[in-house]
């Protein structure tokens, strides 16, 4: 019967699609007017230095740096505020002995905050995991999967209390790839 050939062809086509290599998505394009900041997709996020002040209202995110308890082989501590939807990253460098931070001049949006003892030290983030340093793979999983969102809006431009801990979580996929080892 020819009727049975339709399901067989559908199964063959489905198997072909499932076994085909994944296609890379096209780079996003934007018809938005040019501004001082570049908005790129998550996969291609780049740093935006705080001197590139966005137009419109801007705010800040601040918090404490929870000590790792271990010396870090680093020259500086980079703090990143990553806007979740656009993937834009705002960053500021601090000395490795800093105990608090503020990232200023960020536009309204929903952010995650990360830190990295650059270059060669541990990454950390603002999370709900209640882990200071990831000692086990379970700790690392909990740190990586418990990022807290920070909403900066025109009615609430400044956020305090984004304390960085969870040192050793797997946060590198959220950071600009040109900085990674």
What do you see in this structure?
- The strands form 2 sheets. Strands 1, 3, 4, 6, 7 and 8 form a 6-stranded mixed sheet that branches.
- The protein is globular and about 40 Å long.
- The protein contains 2 helices and 9 strands, in the order H-E-E-E-E-E-E-E-H-E-E.
- Strand 3 and strand 4 (89-94) form a beta hairpin.
- With 181 residues, the protein is α+β, with helices and mostly antiparallel strands.
- The protein has one domain (44-179): Carboxypeptidase-like, regulatory domain (Immunoglobulin-like, Sandwich).
CATH level 1 class label: Mainly Beta
Low-confidence stretches: 1-51
CATH topology tier name: Immunoglobulin-like
Structural class: alpha+beta
Overall structural domain count: 1
Annotated CATH homologous superfamily: Carboxypeptidase-like, regulatory domain
Q: State the helical fraction.
A: 10-25%
Can you write the helix and strand succession as a string?
Answer: HEEEEEEEHEE
The CATH architecture: Sandwich
List the helices and strands and how they pair.
Layout lengths: L4 H15 L27 E2 L10 E6 L11 E8 L5 E6 L5 E7 L2 E10 L4 E3 L11 H8 L5 E3 L5 E3 L21
Parallel strand pairs: 1-4, 2-9
Antiparallel strand pairs: 2-5, 3-4, 3-6, 6-7, 6-8
């Amino acid at each position: 019967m020819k009727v049975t050939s339709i399901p067989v062809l559908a199964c063959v086509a489905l198997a072909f699609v499932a076994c085909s290599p994944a296609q890379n998505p096209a780079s996003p394009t934007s018809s938005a007017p040019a501004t001082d900041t570049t908005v790129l997709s998550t996969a291609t996020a780049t740093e935006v230095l705080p001197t590139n002040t966005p137009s419109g209202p801007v705010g800040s995110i601040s918090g404490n740096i929870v000590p790792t308890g271990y010396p870090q082989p680093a020259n500086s501590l980079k703090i990143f505020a990553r806007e979740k939807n656009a993937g834009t990253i705002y960053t500021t460098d601090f000395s490795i002995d800093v105990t608090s931070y503020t990232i200023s001049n960020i536009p309204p949006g929903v952010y995650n905050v990360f830190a990295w003892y650059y270059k060669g030290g541990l990454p950390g983030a603002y999370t709900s995991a209640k882990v200071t340093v990831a000692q086990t793979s379970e700790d690392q999983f909990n740190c990586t999967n418990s990022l807290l969102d920070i909403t900066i809006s025109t009615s609430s431009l400044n956020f305090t209390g984004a304390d960085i801990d969870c040192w050793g979580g797997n946060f590198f996929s959220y950071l600009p790839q040109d900085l990674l080892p």
